[in-house]
Amino acid sequence: MSKRRCLQAPVKSLKKALKTFSVLVGALALGAAARGWANVPGGGTGTGADVTVTTNGTNVTLDNGIVSFVIDTTDGDITSFIYNGVDLLTGGDDGAGGSFYFDNSGGPVLTNPVYTLTVNPANNGGNQAEVWLQSTESPMDMAVYYDLLRGQQGIYDTVVFTHEASYPDYPGAELRSNMYVGSIFDWLVVDPYRFRQMASPSDSVTTVPGAPPEVMQFTSGIYDGFTNCKYSYSDPLGELNTWGWASSTTNYGIWQTVPSHEFYDGGPLHRELTEHLGNTLLNMFGGDHYGFGSTQDQPAGTFSTKTFGPAFIYANMYGGASTDPVSLKAQVLWADAQAQAAAEQGAWPYAWFNPQPVAGAASSIVYTPASGRATVSGTLAINDPYNPGISPVSIWVGLAPLDGGVDFQQQYLTYQFWVQTGSGGTFTLPNVLPGTYNLWAFGPGVVGTYEDANITVTAGQTLNLGTLTWNPLRLGPTVWDIGVPDRDSNEFNGGNHDVTPFTGVLPPYAGGPPYDVPATWGAFMAYPTLYPNGVSYVVGTSNYASDWNYCQPATAIVSAGVTTYGGSSSTIYFNMPSAPSAAQTGRLYIAFASVFDAACILTINGTIQTASVMGSTDGQYAAITNPTTGFYPPNYGFACMVRLGSQGAWGDAYLDFPGNDLKAGPNTIIIGMRPTGTAANGDGFEYDYVRLELTGYVTPTPTPGTAATSTSTPTVTITNSPTNTSTSTATASATSTPSNTASSTSTATASNTPTSTSTLTPTPSASATPTFTVTASSTATPSLTPTRTASDTPTLSPTASPTASLTLTSTRTPSSSATATPTASTTSSPSPTASTTSSSTAPATSTASP
């Protein structure tokens, strides 16, 4: 079978949703409990017939009486996966016949590999077989292992990449395994939010104008009118332990489980593809769809090797009545797969794995046993004098090497070890490989990144680091903030577009408007309708869950049938109880959940800020040039919005400015976005968190005996008039280099220059709440011309009466609310009152297609 590239290929809240789900499934009393057996590594009961190996020409069959696999030794593909007598691949790959294979997307492949049976069951009493297929070929050697043990209910797969010192430069490529599972599978499960019956392969589809080619709109079937694409099912891999498919007709399930996260690159929030229509089951060992793991290049003259795996693909079967609801079957099968993943993780590192030394480096260690690893523990304390109650719980703490000075998000051929802190900030990292690491930390509620350098770990060591004190980035007291610093935009309006739980009602569509609907295949597409003149946010009365958008995208402008793209803006209105002095310093801090081809322009009380901003991806801040056309935020250049993610590679930036740029009474800050790409649909950024600080600031105290809100809370009504006149015309090609050095130029005329001339007249009232008549000419009018281019087979049976409707609940979206009582009217009519012509050099940008 010819291979083809797959075309359809927040921490605490996810855990809460999973906990809720576990309670539901617990009430079902899984078949495992009913039968008196528990999940063991490999699945099943751990007992059964001898493992056998049969060779027939270029095919090798591994069999243990429960599962059997046919491996094509010419390319390493698995072409048959039989479980309990049923081939789980039949009808896969659009009817061509399913398979399992490794895809390096333009990188090395197994070319005429050498086949070796490294573990022969004839020599170990029939307990294990291990197949090794190796191709040694410049610029990267590739080795694949398949392991089958007695009683096992699936297959272990491993791939090893080695760059020899004698090889030329290897530019890198994404790496994944993929299984085209059989046509019997029709219910997809990623998490409580992506848990649904999928469309039939016979349903008709059409393309969606303006969307990537992977996006399809159904024109028949249960999803008639809805859209779907592979990006609908992406997720942070560090938060996932299993994902897969269930069958409504045969009661089978097939699952990708994760025995360890150490071989994934980019940290625990590395978002990647998991599975999608076309019945794929992906394991993205390395990929940069969302900006992670982008340093794949291996220079000539350097040696490196990395083992991805063993990973485990697990098969199970529901033992209840065939008439039980498919959603119940899927829940039971998924819960068993989660238990199986936990069993695999408890057995890591596997003692049975027998990899061979890599070619050219006989002394290299391909896989380190438990005796050669270490345990690292400690306690993380957080010291923020202006937020003393901040919790050190659920903070991600990880060890990753300082790989060429690149932060952990971009590393590719390294191993990383991550865990979330428990009570009091304690953490324990087991099974750490020997080496020298930096310790990193980030998490909900804390701004920025913690980094502690040169943590040396030795084999067999138990290392206690003691108490590590994190002093988060802070200048002064908080004047106001928007959102929660957690590296995700899901708490904002539209940000939870991928986390709406399944309702139990068919058709089981779980996307929820405005996501995955015909007119707005991506939530960001709704922005021009929701905010024709950009976001207007009133501190003290606005609610970020509903009034601050998760993203700030480019906006389409249609003129004479021609579509161009312009900028957008978010305006923050707030009061200061008194005028700050020149001796005080303000700091505007913005954390970006993702950025793609966009410059950020900051305007304070009508003045565009041109002082350098400080930016970082790892807590090590450096100056970023900030012309009137805007600065380029860190981790610039990955299309997260268009790939339907609520987060991608993260970065933050802050601007320090004289305190007397603020004034007593009403103030405005405008965050402008200027698109810099040649295909501006999808340009923009997603928000993580915004905060204003001011040295010497004292939070106002409400006057006793009044019903007034704080005097720092303006009460306004915003009336927007859609008169934006932005234009953007791409006129030339661009070059892009992976080094993030400027290799393209962007010439802009009037590049999103928000000129705000506000007349704010406070009118005293008895309630001490200022009312305003605001006449704002907030002009965000970029006009730019960028020039850049068996019998032992256990089954699962619920012992409780199945119900036809089960609900997976989510608490991921903030439940806070705010009520604004307008006491005056405001009219905001953007009009082109200024024009700026400038040129700036943009950083190199990724132009990878989705």
Describe this structure in words.
With 850 residues, the chain is mainly beta. 6% of the residues lie in helices and 35% in strands. The protein has 5 helices and 53 strands. The strands form 12 sheets. It has a 9-stranded antiparallel β-sheet with strand order 7-8-9-10-23-19-18-12-13. Strands 31, 33, 37, 40, 41, 42 and 44 form a 7-stranded antiparallel β-sheet that branches. A 5-stranded antiparallel β-sheet has the order 1-2-3-4-5, with no helix packed on it. A hairpin with a 5-residue loop joins strand 40 (613-616) and strand 41. It is globular, with a radius of gyration of 28 Å. Mean pLDDT is 79; it is low at 1-37, 504-515, 705-793 and 799-850.
Describe the structure concisely:
6% of the residues lie in helices and 35% in strands.
Calculate the terminal CA-CA distance, rounded to whole Å. Answer: 25 Å
Q: Regions with pLDDT < 50 over 5+ consecutive residues?
A: 1-37, 504-515, 705-793, 799-850
- Biggest sheet features: 9 strands, antiparallel
Per DSSP E runs of 2 or more residues, the count of β-strands stands at 53
Strand content bin: 35-45%
Strands of the widest sheet, in order across it, are: 7-8-9-10-23-19-18-12-13
Global shape: globular
What would the keywords be for this entry?
53 strands; mainly beta; 850 residues; nine-stranded antiparallel beta sheet; disordered C terminus; 5 helices; disordered N terminus
Topology, please?
Blueprint: H1 11-26, H2 31-35, E1 52-56, E2 59-63, E3 67-72, E4 78-83, E5 86-87, E6 100-103, E7 114-119, E8 128-135, E9 141-149, E10 154-163, E11 175-180, E12 187-189, E13 195-197, E14 205-207, E15 216-218, E16 227-228, E17 235-236, E18 242-246, E19 252-257, E20 271-272, E21 275-276, E22 280-286, E23 304-317, H3 326-346, E24 374-382, E25 396-400, E26 417-420, E27 426-432, E28 435-442, E29 450-457, E30 462-470, E31 478-483, H4 527-530, E32 535-538, H5 544-547, E33 551-553, E34 555-559, E35 562-566, E36 568-576, E37 585-596, E38 598-604, E39 607-608, E40 613-616, E41 622-624, E42 651-658, E43 665-675, E44 684-694, E45 719-720, E46 727-728, E47 732-733, E48 744-749, E49 755-760, E50 774-779, E51 783-788, E52 826-828, E53 837-842
Parallel strand pairs: 24-30, 32-36, 45-52, 46-51, 47-51, 50-52
Antiparallel strand pairs: 1-2, 2-3, 3-4, 4-5, 6-11, 7-8, 8-9, 9-10, 10-23, 11-22, 12-13, 12-18, 14-15, 15-16, 17-20, 18-19, 19-23, 21-22, 24-27, 25-26, 25-28, 28-29, 31-44, 33-44, 34-35, 36-43, 37-42, 37-44, 38-39, 38-43, 40-41, 40-42, 48-51, 48-53, 49-50
